[in-house]
Known about the structure:
The chain has 125 residues and is mainly β. The protein has one domain. It contains no helices and six strands. It has a six-stranded antiparallel β-sheet, with no helix packed on it.
Amino acid sequence: xxxxxxxxxxxxxxxxxHLCTPSGERLMIRVEGDMDKHxxxxxxxxxxxxxxxxxxxxxxxxxxxxxxxxxVRLTGVWGPGxxxxxGTLEHEPADPGHPPPPKxxxxxxxxxxxxxxxxxxxxxx
Length: 125
């Protein structure tokens, strides 16, 4: 039986999360990632490619990205309880008649596992 599936060279991961900015703002985001196809139970030291974007409307499951909204593309290494990653912060094109979004900028981030079932408070840095 043909299911329409096709072989891939990566393991795809995805989910929803939040990002605390240095100013203490919380952004609800969609996170997607790709790792080696055959992962062992221990992912420490393995590379991961990550992309993330904000949803068009807060609290929705829409894959639509709002015009001018930010998104990131990162490459990092999985560590104990965290991922250290570098990449770019980019923006979707703006609607006609609106100012153009900022140019892409290089970023370095640490994605930290919270281990909490509730949303921890975002702290200013």
